[in-house]
Structures are given as structure tokens and as C-alpha cells.
Amino acid sequence: EEGTSTEKPYTSSGVGPKPCPPGSACPSGTAHNVTGSWLPSFELGRISPQPCSEGYHCPQNSSSIMGAGQCPPGHYCPPQSSLPVKVPPGTFAGEEGGAIAPSLCLPGTFSPQPGSVSCTECPAGYSCLTYGTYIPRICEPGTYRSKEDSLTCKPCPQRSLSPYSGLTDVSQCLPCPEGLVCSSKGMSDIGLSHSCPEGNACGYLTDGSSQYDHKCAAGHYCGEETTTFDQYNKYCLAGTYCERGTTETL
Fold it and tell me: Which SUPFAM superfamilies does this UniProt record tie to the protein (predicted)?
């Protein structure tokens, strides 16, 4: 009988056909439960259970090598599958079904759940650098990534910084404060900046190439971390004079 195997027909003792093993198929005339390849030129091949086709699943008592049907979307069925297997996180099996193995998510995409039929685009503020990503990596402080950017998080440019993670656009990088110099890319902490040099005044967005652009105003003197506004707070003392760029009264 299809879907069963037996070495002997029914007897008075009640012994009859046995269920076909899971992961295989038993066409009519199957005589035993040892699965083998279909070899029509050999008698053993004609009476052996046949392995379930790849991409299909064959539960117990299957009579066809296509068993209960094609492997459903989000699952895979290698040869001799008795049940579909959900693809793990970081992989997918397409909506067309019939997968024999999981497919890895490509860089720039991720899949957080088992049984996915597709991978999701990596969100802004995160990176998905490797094949098989299942948890996006948040952009670290001092970096950002928009959806239009490449796979990696980019450093905030010179003259800016950010102590926050997960930035989604370069505009979220904060301008370097007045009185300080931000010479490096990807700065995450104000402590990584250095003071505006004596004799100079530094406004917002100052870097190493512009820290000497604004000399202290004549008639005033400027110590470290002087801002463009503060430069007018320290007057040259009576009996002294201060040229432009003076660091202390003369």
C-alpha cells in the first residue's frame, strides 16, 4: 500500500504494513524501511523507500517523494526532510518557497527573527557590515549614518563633535564650542578638544587650521579659551598698551 512498507503481507497474527519513515516516500510495492536511491535496474531500488526530494518535506506515511508539498516561505528543506525548518536570524528563504538551505542577509540588511522571507534595510543610525547580520550595530558617539550613506558609520567632521550614539545625519553633529579647537574627525567628547591659543579668539566651528585666524583685538589681551565675545572683556591696563594679538598687558 502507498505510504507504507512491509516485508510480508497480512498474516493471521495481524502483522501488516508499517508507516513509511519520516523524510522518505514509499510508493506502492515498497518492501522494507531502508531508504535507498531509485535504481530501476535493481530490484532493491524498486522496493526501497525513496528519500524525500530537496525543497520538499515528507512526514510519516508519505507515498510521493514530494511528500506534503514544497517547503513554505521562511523555511528550508534539505533532502530527506520530514518537517520544514525555520531559517535562523540573519538569514531568509524567499516567498517562492522550496528552499533547500537558508540564504544569508547581504551587508546593509538584517533579519532579527527566525522564519524571515526577506531581509530588512539597515536603519539610519546603525550599521550592518557583515553577511548574516541579525542585530544592527548602533553608530558610536562621534559618528553618524544616514540611509543614503555607505554601509559604515561616518565620523563627524572636523569643527564638530557628538557625545550621542545613533546619529542619523551629519547635521546632528554639534558645532565645536566657542573658545575651543576641534581638530580631529569623529570627536565624541569635549575633553578631546584643546583650548584656543593665547592671543587669539575662537568662535564656533574652530579647527586647527583656523585657530589663529582671529587675533585678539588691539587694546585688549586674551588668555586661553577666549571667545570672540570675551576678547573685549579684558582691557589693557592703564600705563600699558596691547597690540593686536596680545596675550598679556605690556
Answer: Growth factor receptor domain
Structural domain contains residue 246: no
- Of residues 241 and 84, more confidence is placed in 84
Residue pLDDT, tens place only, 28-59? 655 555 555 545 455 554 567 788 888 999 88
Residue 223 forms part of a structural domain: no
Q: 124-153: b or e for each residue (b if 16 or more CB lie within 10 Å)?
A: bbbbbeeebbbebebbbbbbbbeeebeeeb
What was the pLDDT predicted at 5? 47
More confident residue, 178 or 33: 178
> Which range marks the domain in which residue 9 is found?
1-69
Q: Which of left, alpha, beta for 80 (phi over 0: left; psi -120 to 50: alpha)?
A: left
**What is the average per-residue pLDDT within 182-188?**
97
Overall domain count for the chain: 1
One-letter-per-residue 3-state SS of the chain: CCCEECCCCCCCCCCCCEECCCCEECCCCCCCCCCCCCCCCCHHHHCCCEECCCCECCCCCCCCCCCCCECCCCEECCCCCCCCEECCCCEECCCCCCCCCCEECCCCEECCCCCCCCCEECCCCEECCCCCCCCCEECCCCEECCCCCCCCCEECCCCEECCCCCECCHHHCEECCCCEECCCCCCCCHHHCEECCCCECCCCCCCCCCCCCCECCCCECCCCCCCCCHHHCCECCCCCCCCCCCCCCC
Spatial distance between the Cα atoms of 130 and 200, rounded to a whole number of angstroms: 47
In a domain, 41, yes or no: yes
What is the pTM (predicted TM-score) of this model?
Answer: 0.74
